[in-house]
């Protein structure tokens, strides 16, 4: 375990990055907004937040961040991806924009906005592997539906579909832990980024 608190970058193109910064700091991490390539230097972890995956991918491409972020994650940087972040990482995207770019590093297939219009937003108690005690309040906002999982470990299911998966040092969630008021997943991620889980 490192003596210094791990430094975690939060991709700040668009979306729910401020809430992640606050949650990570409350969970004991040092944080940095990631807006350009240099911001990746020296990170122990990165968060790809929720928002709009198409806009995020476009802005990443424009700012020249798409390839460096892909390289960093592929090189083993601890990664927490939530909602749109999960879509950005997914290998296959259904109902995306025709030219939607993705990092394509996580062996899952997702359907954008796959929970349908009637249930654009909902909250569900989740049983998540590795979290002690009570269920986790899963806040879903126009969430991606995970329709295929390949060589990943499923950490939680809801309604017959995976909503939390892990692949090596990548953790991807279909919901928004930063909006739940529950810090347990951020604490686990801070531990992962510090090399202790
Ligand atoms: N539906 C959004 C997308 O396609 C994701 C929603 C979210 O991140 N809350 O990117």
Structural descriptors:
197 residues; alpha/beta; Rossmann fold; seven-stranded mixed beta sheet; three-stranded mixed beta sheet; 5 helices; 12 strands; 23% helix; binds glutamine
Walkthrough of the structure:
The chain is an alpha/beta fold and 197 residues long. The chain has one domain (7-193): 3-Layer(aba) Sandwich (Rossmann fold). 23% of the residues lie in helices and 32% in strands. It contains 5 helices and 12 strands. It has helices at 17-26, 53-62, 66-74, 84-89, 184-193; strands spanning 7-11, 30-34, 45-48, 78-82, 90-94, 106-111, 121-126, 136-141, 145-149, 153-158, 161-167, 170-173. The strands form 3 sheets. A 7-stranded mixed β-sheet has the order 2-1-3-4-12-11-10. A 3-stranded mixed β-sheet has the order 5-6-9. It has a two-stranded antiparallel sheet with strand order 7-8. Helix 1 (17-26) links the parallel strand 1 (7-11) and strand 2. The chain is globular. The site of glutamine has 11 residues, from helix 4.
Annotation field: number of helices: 5
Strand order of the largest sheet: 2-1-3-4-12-11-10
Attached small molecules: glutamine
Going by CATH, the architecture would be 3-Layer(aba) Sandwich
Would you list the SSEs in sequence order as H and E?
EHEEHHEHEEEEEEEEH
Strand content: 25-35%
Concise synopsis of the structure shown:
This protein is α/β, with parallel strands linked by helices. The strands form 3 sheets. Strands 2-1-3-4-12-11-10 form a 7-stranded mixed beta sheet.
């Amino acid at each position: 375990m490192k003596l210094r608190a791990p430094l975690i970058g939060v991709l700040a193109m668009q979306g729910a990055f401020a809430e992640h910064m606050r949650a990570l700091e409350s969970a004991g991490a040092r944080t940095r907004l990631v807006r350009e390539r240099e911001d990746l230097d020296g990170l122990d972890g990165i968060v790809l937040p929720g928002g709009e995956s198409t806009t995020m991918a476009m802005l990443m491409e424009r700012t020249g961040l798409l390839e460096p972020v892909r390289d960093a994650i592929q090189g083993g940087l601890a990664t927490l991806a939530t909602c749109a972040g999960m879509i950005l990482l997914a290998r296959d995207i259904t109902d995306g924009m025709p030219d939607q770019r993705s990092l394509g590093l996580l062996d899952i297939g997702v359907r954008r906005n796959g929970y349908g219009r009637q249930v654009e937003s909902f909250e569900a108690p989740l049983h998540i592997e590795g979290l002690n005690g009570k269920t986790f309040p899963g806040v879903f906002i126009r969430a991606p539906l995970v329709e295929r999982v390949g060589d990943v470990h499923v950490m939680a299911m809801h309604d017959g579909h995976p909503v939390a998966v892990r692949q090596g040092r990548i953790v991807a969630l279909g919901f928004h832990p930063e909006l739940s008021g529950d810090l347990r997943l951020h604490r686990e991620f801070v531990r992962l980024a510090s090399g202790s889980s």
